[in-house]
Specification:
Blueprint: H1 3-20, H2 29-36, H3 40-46, H4 51-72, H5 76-89, H6 91-100, H7 103-122, H8 131-154, H9 161-184
Helix pairs in contact: 1-4, 1-6, 4-5, 4-7, 5-9, 7-8, 8-9
Length: 185
């Protein structure tokens, strides 16, 4: 691991610690830097977009990589389980991140993540669909999954994680069945 990677991981760990303890209504760079004992220059060298960059990098390292690995190996369900388990394990951190980000920012993030995940899952079927058709599938199913996650967060993660996990897996299985059945037509 490079020094740069170690520094970013350290910052992610501090971020998780800061957002696990309490309901955060605001987290400033100054508060973060004081807790992490880092300079402003170091922070912005690693995250030029500021706290948002750190938020998304942390989520990417903690969830998205694991989900990607599951999907690339063909195991959609395992990817869903990973994401739901992380959100459950780090409930306050995830809720705080959700509420600290404004709606357009959350939407962009969820859309980017879902589109990437579904795109990777559909890559095996690109011979039977046009790029536009694949975009339609990604948008439709990504939107359905985003809506379920968004409702779960808006309800402060009150719905049992197993219920959300089941819903997400169901949607992904439906998508997989659709594209597989189109192969046989």
């Amino acid at each position: 691991m490079t020094r740069r990677q170690a520094t970013k991981r350290y910052m992610a760990m501090i971020l998780i610690e800061l957002l696990m303890d309490q309901k955060a209504t605001k987290l400033t760079v100054a508060t973060f830097l004081k807790t992490a004992n880092l300079s402003r220059t170091t922070f912005y060298n690693h995250f030029p977009t500021g706290m948002c960059g750190l938020f998304w990098w942390t989520l990417e390292q903690q969830i998205i990589q694991k989900v990607d690995e599951s999907i690339v190996s063909g195991d959609w369900e395992s990817g869903c389980h990973e994401a739901i388990q992380f959100i459950t394990r780090y409930r306050m951190f995830c809720l705080n991140l959700y509420h600290l980000a404004d709606y357009p920012e959350r939407r962009r993030f969820f859309e980017q993540v879902m589109k990437q995940i579904i795109h990777k899952a559909l890559r095996h079927y690109k011979a039977q669909y046009t790029p536009q058709q694949l975009n339609h599938l990604e948008d439709f199913y990504g939107g359905a999954i985003i809506r379920q996650l968004d409702c779960w967060f808006e309800n402060n993660l009150q719905t049992e994680p197993e219920v959300i996990d089941e819903r997400l897996c169901f949607n992904l299985k439906q998508l997989e069945q659709i594209v597989k059945s189109d192969q046989t037509i």
